[in-house]
Task: inverse folding
């Protein structure tokens, strides 16, 4: 098996696949590079890690121990590529993630003797007694001086490490190649524990109808490995991983199909088959157990439209309402178009948009937040911020007729009240099931789609407007 066709099988404690040759006893440590790993992070809590290393075989066959790999590596995706030097042939691969911890030491010593360090409180002198660990299930049980003890009366010291236990996870490769040859290789693999999501912060000026928009990429690392001065790419989109995770071979083929487009602030944006990839400028350190925010994009003076809306429920039109009236506050939505005229014009990854505005004293106040989806260039972004305290919508079912088994006729009065000191427009959106026809109305409606009709209701300051309509629904 050559390095371009490497496979790994997964098992508890270690992943092992033997092909042809037995394991090589002699081990050569291949430490991780101090910096410069390439990370492609996907939005589904996984990433492609690629780092460059140099190896030298002491003989024509040896076992390479790649340390500094993620403890959440998916070993079946590992790929070793020779960049310079003679080819290497892999005969066996093992992912050893049985790492050294106090709990692992205890489990490995069950049935064996250990030392128990006892300290004379008067003199400070230490003595070591031998004891046998009987169990570590639900607590420590030892035998010492012919008696059974729960817990240890002193510090426990071990004669040796349990077999196969390492200080950190390691990928082991038994290889054959040219002895003494310096070989440059790329190690690639997929791992869990690296994730990212987009977070948007908007400073909204309602008087100007504009906002300043800042997008951050929030990257979280729980792999157990520090990535120093890494080159980071972020992929937005839903990658299908069933029935098996895509391998680095597939990822490389996908990257070959990219079409580039510029993006502000030094961030490169590229089309990646059905996804979008953002290349962050420079190098960034992402340590284990760390969440870091990285600037992704920025748009100033983005034109934004504030709308008030109220939506009904489809069941309103299919049954007689037990309570003939239902009242709610109007929903507040901000809408802007993702295009160059809006100072944007690049695909926006899904994330949470948080909106702030200034009060009369100039202090920033939080208006609300909304989840936005992946938004291609040219499409609108709608962000629901909450409900308007001063604008209420009262729906009254004034008549209900079951004309046949499939036809229902309902009459409605919708009263929109405005307690503000200025006039507002409210979009009254009725969600109707089946096929429907508005047979009478006091204001003209717009058919948004097969299931929605919309009335734009203008409401004066400190006043109200009444909309009446009849609808015939066929189920």
Result:
């Amino acid at each position: 098996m050559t390095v371009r066709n490497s496979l790994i099988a997964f098992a508890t404690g270690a992943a092992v696949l033997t092909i042809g040759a037995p394991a090589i006893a002699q081990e050569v440590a291949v430490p991780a590079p101090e910096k410069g790993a390439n990370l492609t992070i996907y939005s589904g809590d996984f990433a492609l890690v690629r780092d460059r290393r140099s190896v030298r075989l002491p003989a024509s066959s040896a076992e390479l121990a790649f340390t500094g790999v993620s403890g959440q590596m998916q070993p079946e995706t590992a790929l070793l590529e020779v960049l310079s030097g003679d080819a290497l042939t892999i005969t066996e691969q093992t992912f050893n993630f049985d790492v050294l911890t106090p709990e692992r030491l205890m489990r490995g010593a069950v049935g064996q003797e250990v030392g128990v360090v006892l300290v004379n409180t008067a003199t400070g002198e230490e003595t070591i007694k031998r004891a046998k660990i009987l169990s570590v299930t639900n607590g420590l049980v030892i035998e010492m001086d012919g008696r059974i003890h729960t817990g240890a009366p002193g510090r426990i010291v071990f004669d040796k490490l349990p077999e196969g236990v390492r200080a950190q996870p390691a990928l082991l490769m038994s290889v054959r190649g040219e002895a003494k040859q310096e070989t440059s290789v790329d190690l690639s693999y997929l791992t869990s524990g690296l994730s990212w999501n987009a977070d948007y912060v908007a400073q909204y000026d309602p008087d100007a109808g504009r906002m300043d928009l800042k997008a951050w990429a929030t990257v979280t690392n729980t792999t157990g490995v520090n990535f120093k001065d890494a080159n980071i790419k972020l992929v937005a989109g839903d990658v299908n991983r069933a029935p098996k995770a895509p391998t680095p071979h597939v990822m490389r083929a996908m990257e070959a199909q990219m079409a580039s487009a510029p993006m502000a602030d030094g961030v490169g944006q590229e089309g990646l088959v059905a996804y979008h990839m953002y290349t962050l400028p420079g190098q960034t350190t992402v340590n284990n157990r760390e969440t870091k925010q990285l600037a992704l994009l920025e748009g100033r003076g983005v034109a934004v439209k504030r709308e008030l809306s109220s939506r009904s429920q489809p069941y309103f039109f299919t049954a007689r309402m037990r309570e003939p009236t239902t009242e709610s506050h109007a929903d507040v939505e901000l809408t802007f178009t993702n295009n160059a005229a809006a100072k944007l014009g690049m695909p926006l990854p899904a994330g949470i948009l948080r909106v702030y505005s200034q009060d009369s004293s100039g202090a920033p106040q939080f208006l609300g937040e909304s989840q936005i989806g992946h938004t291609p260039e040219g499409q609108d972004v709608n962000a629901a911020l909450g409900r308007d305290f001063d604008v209420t919508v009262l729906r009254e079912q004034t008549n209900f007729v079951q004309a046949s088994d499939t036809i229902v006729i309902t009459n409605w009065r919708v009263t929109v009240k405005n307690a503000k000191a200025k006039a507002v427009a409210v979009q009254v959106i009725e969600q109707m099931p089946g096929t429907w026809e508005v047979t009478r109305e006091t204001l003209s409606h717009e058919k948004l789609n097969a299931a929605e009709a919309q009335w734009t209701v203008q409401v004066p300051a400190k006043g109200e407007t009444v909309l009446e309509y009849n609808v015939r629904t066929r189920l």
